[in-house]
Write a structure and sequence with these properties.
Layout: H1 16-25, H2 34-47, E1 52-55, H3 58-68, E2 76-80, H4 89-93, E3 97-101, H5 112-126, E4 132-134, H6 145-154, E5 160-162, E6 170-171, E7 174-175, E8 182-186, E9 199-202, H7 206-216, H8 239-249, H9 252-270, E10 276-278, E11 286-287, E12 293-297, H10 339-350, E13 356-357, E14 373-374, H11 378-385, E15 386-389, H12 397-411
Parallel strand pairs: 2-3, 2-4, 3-14, 5-8
Antiparallel strand pairs: 1-9, 6-7, 6-11, 8-9, 10-12, 12-15, 13-15
Helix pairs in contact: 1-8, 2-8, 3-7, 9-12, 10-12
Bound molecules: pyridoxal-5'-phosphate (PLP).
Pyridoxal-5'-phosphate binds near residues 136 and 164.
Length: about 400
């Protein structure tokens, strides 16, 4: 039996222990230390920017970006609906309301026309401007950042780029996370590189960087005793995690090249498979890192076993959420991928291949059922037909051939 092929299993560079040993030899096992500073500097060099704060997660980075952008309870924030919950949840942490905006067909990311309509309509309805705009680089694919920035500037709304999945992706040759007022990055275990959990916020200047750092370390005032005038957070990256991040930066370019190579191989092998369409850069302006390779299935494509898809309530969490399962009441909800997509996921699973549906749009999540949403049907229709395929550093050419053969088998 072959090893299970995971979507994006983290791969160490071989240098992690050297960094950790050096830090421990100097007793730097604290939440802040010289490796955090070095990681920030080296990350900045890797993506050609500065004013970076290393944090304990990408989610914290979204949260602190909102706070630094002045988002207060009662405010509204425009968020791409087609995303992982971490793009939207921090809006609620801040006591604000997410207003969801649907996607465009090409990039699968926030639709600039709909975004502008949403801005105008929120101003008309509430008399106030939304306080931030959060586009998301879904699976690494860039958003139309030039148009988003043009709209944002026209209405003086700061852009917080959620580039958690898009480390190293480029639009017009420029790296994501460096266009907006803030850029969010993630080094969670399954991202392009890992710090065993961690994230970073790219800030516009040194003053803002210091403010964010201050909020990330409990917002203490300068007195000999602990004086607090605002609520702070404990969001700083651990020095040991920074050691892992530093070692991983050494293989960032290699990892990105590998993900692009895997995408190219899927392209080659899937090109004659009718009914399966690989998601690609919509034009040469986009340069995705292809964090995950994704494909859509023609609704008419028959996949073996689709009649029995969703027949049973799942016993284990798909992908395993820390081994903690919130038992589902029924096999499905009122919005899920088509039966052929679920059947393909099951066929791949049976062949020891991890695959999963696309992110379920936030405007269809029960937890956000009361949030305003500007919808065009694109994210929901993609959710119905899309599937994520393995692309990580451990995925070999042979694995990709095996995955595509398994797909062909399932639809044969
Ligand atoms: C992973 C991810 C985040 C959050 O990163 P964590 O480090 O896991 O907190 C935010 N947004 C998106 C789109 C992500 O995929």
């Amino acid at each position: 039996m072959r090893d299970r092929i995971l979507l994006c299993k983290p791969k160490m560079s071989g240098r992690e222990l050297d960094f950790i040993k050096a830090a421990l030899a100097e007793d730097w096992a604290v939440p802040m230390g010289p490796d955090c500073n070095a990681f920030e500097r080296e990350l900045g060099e890797a993506i050609g920017t500065e004013h970076i704060v290393a944090l304990n997660s990408g989610t914290s980075a979204v949260h602190l970006a909102l706070i630094a952008a002045g988002v207060k309870p009662g405010d509204e924030v425009l968020v791409q609906s087609f995303t992982f919950c971490a793009s939207a949840n921090p809006v609620r942490y801040a006591g604000a309301t997410p207003v969801f905006v649907d996607s465009e067909h090409g990039s699968w990311n926030i639709d600039p026309d709909l975004l502008e309509e949403a801005v105008k309509d929120r101003i008309a309805k509430t008399g106030r401007r939304p306080k931030a705009i959060i586009p998301v680089a879904l699976y690494g694919m860039p958003y139309q950042i030039d148009r988003i920035l043009e709209i944002a500037d026209r209405y003086s709304i700061p852009v917080i780029e959620d580039a958690a999945e898009g480390l190293g992706s480029r639009y017009d040759g420029k790296v994501l996370g460096t266009f907006g007022r803030f850029g969010v990055l993630s080094f969670n275990g399954n991202k392009m590189i890992t710090s065993s959990g961690g994230g970073a916020l790219v800030c516009p200047d040194e003053d803002t960087r210091r403010t964010v750092m201050w909020y990330a370390t409990q917002a203490r005032e300068s007195y000999p005793y602990y004086e607090h005038q605002v609520i702070g957070y404990n969001y700083r990256l651990s020095n040991i995690s920074a050691c892992i991040g530093r070692a991983q930066l050494k293989v960032l370019d290699e990892h990105i090249a590998h993900h692009r190579h895997v995408q190219a191989l899927y392209r080659e092998l899937l090109k004659d498979v009718e009914g399966v369409t690989l998601h690609e850069n919509p034009s040469p302006r986009y340069d995705s890192n292809f964090w995950l390779c994704t494909a859509t299935l023609d609704p008419d494509l028959h996949v073996r076993g689709q009649e029995k898809a969703y027949a049973e309530t799942l016993k284990g969490a798909v992908g395993g959420a820390a081994g903690v399962v919130h038992a589902a009441a029924a096999p499905t909800t009122d919005c899920q991928p088509n039966a052929n997509v679920e059947a393909l996921r099951m066929a791949l699973d049976a062949a020891s291949i991890e695959a999963r549906p696309l992110w379920k749009p936030m405007h269809r999540q029960p937890v956000y059922s009361d949030a305003p949403a500007y919808v065009n049907g694109v994210s929901e229709s993609l959710f119905a037909v899309g599937i994520c395929l393995p692309a990580g550093p451990y995925v070999t050419d042979d694995d990709v051939r095996y995955i595509v053969d398994t797909i062909k088998d399932a639809i044969g």
